[in-house]
Design brief:
This protein is mainly alpha-helical and about 350 residues long. Helix content is about 75%, strand content about 0%. The chain has two domains: about 5-145, no CATH class; about 150-345, Methane Monooxygenase Hydroxylase, Chain G, domain 1, CATH 1.20.58. The protein is elongated.
């Protein structure tokens, strides 16, 4: 099992929150400081800067509500429950994020806890402790270099796409075990969602050079298209899975043509990824021109006419034809963007 950078930062932020709280004599709020530090860690510096003000606001809202309720109606368990519901409603109204809302909940619970100390002194210690936790997490986020999201993003895209293309090859030949394929489709869908999250983190990174900013903007467009194309290949896989019986019952020659054309399409996708990686030898001619062009439009036309004589089944293969055509168009767009990106990189 590998411990990620965020887990390491969480541990360091918690330790820092403990030490600072002890240094300022905030022993009564050690637990609150630790919880606040844990919930305030962000995956990137940009998000950390973006959320610290909101987290401080949430702390103030939670503390203020807790003080008001303790002074007016007490701190019975059902009153604390009411306070939590109220502070969640306030945070939702202010459109605060879930982790920010959690800070407000911590503040309410911390303030409404039973104590033998003078109440306002106790409330001040708890408020300060939570603030220490928030600031500790913020400083730890700034101190540690953020992960290289560009490298991680491409690795995730490459790995997920390879799995999808492998399963498409198996499925077009009707060799896949359906229960296993169903589990893999669920996993691949989850992996694609994770890729989207990594892309969002990469897009949030900031550059302070105009030249690097322009280059990074081009990479963002290219990565966005790589993800779009992977999503289309995933749609092809899910369509093949749903229509496996229908495809298996079409004429054998048509089945062979589907396999041949889909294989050429997958080969195109793989070769485009290898081109980005620079693993294909450069020649005087454009290597992208050597990619075998699949005849997807012709295949789609044949699929639509496969049941021309049977009106009931005439459009049975329309979903497959549609997804193949969409996948083909995304590959063509990826090819154009990759050529443009490589030409600009060489200039």
């Amino acid at each position: 099992m590998r411990v990620g950078a965020r887990a390491f930062k969480t541990g360091v932020a918690t330790a820092v929150a403990f030490y600072v709280s002890l240094a300022f004599g905030l022993e009564e709020g050690l637990f609150a400081a630790a919880i606040a530090a844990v919930s305030s860690i962000q995956p990137s510096i940009y998000r950390s800067v973006q959320t610290i003000v909101e987290q401080i606001q949430a702390n103030i809202i939670g503390v203020a509500l807790g003080i008001i309720l303790v002074l007016t109606v007490g701190n019975e368990p059902f009153i604390i429950g009411f306070a939590i519901v109220t502070v969640i409603a306030i945070c939702i109204q202010l459109r605060m994020k879930e982790d920010t809302t959690f800070i407000a909940i911590i503040a309410v619970i911390a303030i409404m806890d039973t104590t033998q100390m003078p109440f306002f002194e106790f409330a001040g210690i708890r408020f300060s402790s939570i603030s220490v936790g928030i600031v500790s997490a913020f400083l730890v986020n700034l101190a540690f270099l953020p992960p290289k999201y560009e490298t991680k993003l491409f690795e995730d895209i490459n790995h997920t796409t390879s799995d999808i293309l492998q399963w498409i090859r198996v499925t077009t030949r009707h060799l896949s075990d359906q229960p296993s394929l169903k589990k893999e489709i669920d996993r691949l869908g989850s992996d694609l969602s994770h890729v989207e999250q990594t892309y969002n983190l990469f897009s949030e990174e900031r550059t302070y050079s105009r030249k690097r900013g322009y280059e990074r903007a081009r990479k963002l467009v290219l990565f966005r298209q790589l993800i779009h194309t992977s999503n289309k290949s995933f749609q092809v896989l899910t369509t093949l899975h749903k229509m496996d019986d229908d495809i298996e019952n079409i004429p054998q020659e048509m089945n062979k043509q589907i396999i041949a054309e889909v294989d050429k399409t997958l080969h195109t996708h793989e070769k485009l990824i290898l081109m980005y990686l620079g693993r294909i030898r450069k020649k005087e001619t454009d290597p992208l021109e050597k990619i075998s062009e699949p005849d997807i439009p012709i295949l789609v036309d044949q699929l639509l006419h496969a049941y021309e004589e049977d009106n009931d089944d005439r459009l049975k293969l329309l979903p497959l034809a549609s997804t193949l055509m969409d996948y083909h168009h995304e590959l063509l767009r990826l090819k154009r963007l990759l050529r443009s990106y490589q030409n600009s990189s060489h200039n």
